[in-house]
Amino acid sequence: MHISLGLLVAGYIVLIATSIPSALDQGAGLPGLVVTMILVGLGQGGLSAVMYPFIADQIPDEKPKVRRNKKGQLVVTERQLAVQYVFNGYYWMVNVGSLVTIATTLIERHVDFWLAFLLPTVIFVITIFPAIWWHKRIVF
């Protein structure tokens, strides 16, 4: 997973670097795009293969228990429901993240491609930090 994340970040950085106007003037656009497509393809392929089992493995496999929530109510905790809840949140975040495409289209039109590519790259890199901070709590 770490290798896949590294390939993705490297691909995005190549895309940004080769879309700067001075790099485009030197003819770096097409080679940069080809390298980016290879790096991102390998990174995303590796990440997609392990992401869903990785997320599900973070939820402990316990028997259903009755607990009190913060409001004092009795609730039943069950792994299957917890996994469903986590994936529901995951897909909502993916959908909310897709709204960035609206901003990138406007940035590309009014500024330039490099800034449009920089925005999702920065957001992606920020999402990696919790995995780095909590690496001792994560189940691999």
Describe the structure concisely.
This protein has 2 domains: 1-57 and 113-140, no CATH class; 60-98.
The count of β-strands is: 2
How are helices and strands ordered from N to C?
HHHEEHHH
Classify the secondary structure makeup into a structural class. Answer: mainly alpha
Task: Give the distance, in angstroms, between the N- and C-terminal Cα atoms.
Answer: 9 Å
Number of helices: 6
The shape, in one word, is: elongated
Point out poorly predicted stretches: none
The biggest sheet amounts to: 2 strands, antiparallel
Strands of the widest sheet, in order across it, are 1-2
What's the domain count?
A: 2
β-strand amount: 5-15%
Oligomer: single chain
DSSP helix fraction: over 70%
User: Average pLDDT across residues?
Assistant: 91
Describe the structure.
The chain has 140 residues and is mainly alpha-helical. It has 2 domains: 1-57 and 113-140, no CATH class; 60-98. 73% of the residues lie in helices and 6% in strands. It is built from 6 helices and 2 strands. It has helices at residues 2-18, 21-25, 29-57, 79-97, 100-110, 113-133; strands at 65-68, 74-77. The protein has a two-stranded antiparallel sheet. A hairpin with a 5-residue loop joins strand 1 and strand 2. The longest helix has 29 residues, at 29-57. The model has no long low-confidence stretch (mean pLDDT 91).
Fold topology:
Blueprint: H1 2-18, H2 21-25, H3 29-57, E1 65-68, E2 74-77, H4 79-97, H5 100-110, H6 113-133
Antiparallel strand pairs: 1-2
Helix pairs in contact: 1-3, 1-6, 5-6
